[in-house]
Amino acid sequence: MTKTFFLGLGGQKCGSSWIQAYLARQPGSDFGRLGEYQAWEHRLGGVFARYRAPEPTALGKLRAHAKVALGALEPAAHLRWRLQRDEDAYFDYFAGLLSQQGITRTGDITPSYAALPVELLARIRDGFASRGVAVKLLFSMRDPVDRLRSHLRMEMEKGRLPEAPENEAPLRAFYATPEAEARSRYDRTLSAIEAVFDDGDVFLTPFETLFTANGIADLSRFAGVAVDAQAGMRAVNSRAKGSGLSEELEGEIARHYAPVYEAAARRLPQVAEAWPSARFVLAPTSA
Q: Is the pTM of this model over 0.85?
């Protein structure tokens, strides 16, 4: 039976936690110790430099080795550091999960991976291919304005931006920053995906339809798992959006990210209807 690694590129605030939870609980799945492994994006520097895992102390390393030797789980921080430090350790870790009896499915679904360039995506594909593991890719895309609003609220909650009850002024200051741009350029992600993966190995979906009966069925079919029709009722990592936005700002943001809308619509024409802010950039699809 085919052993498959699911590489999830997010996007951020686009249902990646829900996708991971949905696939991880299926029979035949073992997604391992972490929800997001964050093993690759630190190499990009810039806004992603904060994902570099600090090296454990000598005592921390000894404790981690002792726990593993006793059959306990490797501490999460040590595992992330180890997988970042050694590419072979990353591939071997997931290949080891797949070597267990009855396990055919594993993966790493990390939203920041949407920024990975062609070279890193190819390295991941080839690293698993050399171990006899197929790689399938998942990428969910949300209305860019709505995604940015949720992203803004997360930055506030994490203390990286000052708290504010309304969104208008904070989002106007945020939407074109390097942090926002790095997470919003679906067009670049799509180009990188197409340079590395065959169409049959890629699952693209609008976030807005992911939790519908058809969306769940499409994901299940791609992953080769039974459909759980009730899964769309489960919220994972949901976050309040704060106040609404003016038409003026919504249009300003949409026009700034026009290449994103255009690239997404070429692959998934339904975003012209599924994304409310697409009305500022895309012509509506004919009925």
A: yes
Are 80 and 37 within 8 A, CB to CB? yes
DSSP H helices, the chain, are 16-24, 58-69, 76-85, 87-98, 118-129, 144-157, 168-174, 178-184, 186-196, 207-210, 213-223, 247-256, 258-267, 271-274
Span 240-250, pLDDT tens digits: 454 589 999 99
Helix 258-267 and helix 186-196: axis angle, to 10°? 40
How far apart are alpha carbons 96 and 164 in whole angstroms? Answer: 46
- Own/partner contacts of 55-62, CB < 8 Å, gap of 24 or more, are 55/81, 55/85, 56/81
The two tokens of residue 158 are: 């994490």
Condensed to tens digits (0 to 9), the pLDDT of residues 228-278 reads 978 875 444 444 454 589 999 999 999 999 999 999 999 999 999 999 999
Q: Which two three-digit tokens encode residue 218?
A: 């499409």
Query: Residue holding tokens 């499409």?
Result: 218
Strand partners, 4: 105, 134
C-alpha span between 112 and 114 (Å, rounded): 5
Q: Which two tokens stand for residue 208?
A: 């807005």
Distance between CA atoms of residues 269 and 274, nearest Å: 9
**Taking a C-beta distance cutoff of 8 angstroms, is the pair 136, 33 a contact?**
no
Sign of the dihedral defined by the CA atoms of residues 83, 89, 94, 99, in that order: negative
